[in-house]
Amino acid sequence: MADRAALLIAVETYFEAGPPIPYAASDCAELHRALPAAGYNPAKCFLIAGTRTTKASIESHLRRLPKLVDKADSLLVLIVTRGFSQKGRGYLACADTITPDLAETSLAVADLLAALNKTKCKEISVLLDVDSFTLPGEVEPSGLDADELTNLFDASANCVGLLSCEPGERSFESATLRHGIWRHHLIEMFTGKSRTGVAKDGSLTAEALHEFLVDAVPRTLRRSYDSPEEQVPQRLGESKSESVIADLGKLLGPGSELLDPGRMKRVVFRAESNSKIKDLTGYRKSHNMPDRVNDWARKYVNRAAVADIKADLDNTFDMVREQFGYKRKDLDVSAERDGMGYIRTPDFEYSVSVTVNPDDLAEVIWQREIGRLSGPEFVRSTGFQAVFGSMFDRLVFEFAQPVDVADFVDQIEDSPPEGVKVGVASDANEAEIVLAGFAGKVVVTPESVVIQGRRGNSASLLEQFLAFLKKFTGLGEPKALPAAK
Predict the structure, then answer these.
(1) Residues 417 and 408 sit within 8 Å (Cβ to Cβ)
(2) Interval 2-24: pLDDT, tens
(3) Domain coordinates of the chain in residue numbers?
(4) In the CATH scheme, what is the code of domain 4-252?
């Protein structure tokens, strides 16, 4: 296993260079705690925060870095601060940066890269969460110089860079999450809360991490702010993007290798039920009922169901707290205004939504889901069964890329696996699999596999699901056909 080292720098407060960066120190501390489980050598993981974030202290650590990391194979560097540029050079503000002499009292990005290259680490991942900085006498905020950054990382033989946002953009935080948004998702990956982009062997590359952040950050930003905001994570040094940034195999645990993101978009438990619109708390007799499925009907149902969604979340919140012992700050709860609500925890995300039933306009369809699961063992736990065991009747595996159902059926029929029967639609766009010993059914479409059974035992659904994946190991893999065992 590679010898991995890390240097985390959180400049949260400044003498005069700008306002504090919310949650910078606590986010870096949380990531620092997570690194050993992600394959890092704890003796070579260093956190610089608080009073140690002066220019002299930071530069001292950078000078001593080759000795501190010794013969480490890879180095992860995360810096959270504010940044600006002058005359085509970018600078990172330190705690003691002063406005009369900004450049001389800040850390030049070029000097940072030069110091990191002296470590001789084969792979260096530089993560910069750098908020914009408004120079004295200027109206628009100044960020790092984009051209300089591109040139520096392209010229480096070992450094790949991930930026929380474009130079000059704001890096947003969420008061609800109590994290910087980009840092929240970074921690999510390093703690195994998401498998997105993680290879079968548990390795996470800089490229895969960047793709996850590009997708996750804008979604959380939209949920966190009423006004439209923009934050676009960036990648630099593209030729080094395949550098491995974490080893998550042990963290994700046994059985998790089956949930391979190379073929999986997501895995969710799901349940649907119908109810009358007139039974919604927000319904009034004076209201006109929907006569078609359109935007007005959706908005009407969303408004009428607000109290019902909140009641569902409140009830689930109480049960989750009781069974799993989460602290309040561990749970992120949101009742969205678009007919949806969710509870996000360290181990899963629960969501509930309501939509108009297109087959009966007097009804709504309630959909409840559990996704972003921390692993199979969590689903098997008594707490999960106590809260959700009787709720779900299907488990859905959504493919990252569409599969050819006809080829899948042909392989089964050419060499039938023991205990497997298959039925197929005339257009070969859906197949139903019957597994010996399972009373439910398995339906394969180009987009997903659905394991459907009786309500009452989510763990049983999971075991059937894992058994199915073991039997058809190649299903959903890019450029691969299913190979039954």
Answers:
(1) no
(2) 899 999 999 999 998 888 999 99
(3) 4-252, 264-471
(4) 3.40.50.1460
